[in-house]
Design goal:
The structure is a single chain. The chain is mostly helical and about 120 residues long. The chain folds into two domains: about 1-65, no CATH class; about 70-123, no CATH class. Helices cover about 40% and strands about 0% of the residues. It has helices spanning about 15-30, 45-55, 80-85, 95-110. α1 (about 15-30) packs parallel to α2 (about 45-55).
Length: about 120
């Protein structure tokens, strides 16, 4: 295979456009702008390799990952739950109007006591 097709130092083959999109997305985030990028495709085409590349490029960011499981297919918001439950301790840092729905939903679905303390945070 020609080295011209291999992106130097990344281990990725022929992914210059995809890498550029990821780098632009991270640059926007560093500038304070949010965005979403959907990575989809058939099994084995390199989606995970692209995500691994993005994580390596995301120095200074907190990165979290979730993996879908067939057993969770029927559970609403299972992936979102996987991503957010480990960060419950950070909810007090959100403005109250943003934190309230998360507190309510995650307390119900994570097995935490639904009893709320006077501070508004589940005990």
């Amino acid at each position: 295979m020609s080295m011209a097709n291999r992106d130097a130092g990344t281990g990725l083959l022929g992914r210059r456009h995809e890498r550029a999109a990821l780098v632009r997305l991270l640059a926007e985030a560093r500038g304070g702008h949010s965005a979403v990028l959907v990575v989809r495709g058939e099994p084995g085409i390199g989606k995970t390799a692209l995500l691994d590349y993005a994580v390596r490029q995301a120095a200074g960011f907190r990165t979290v990952r979730a993996a879908g499981a067939e057993a969770e297919m029927e559970l609403p918001f299972a992936g979102l739950h996987q991503l957010c439950v480990p960060m419950l301790h950070r909810l007090p840092q959100l403005p109250p109007h943003s934190a309230a729905p998360w507190k309510s939903h995650l307390a119900r679905t994570s097995g935490l006591s639904p009893i709320v303390s006077s501070s508004g945070w589940p005990r």
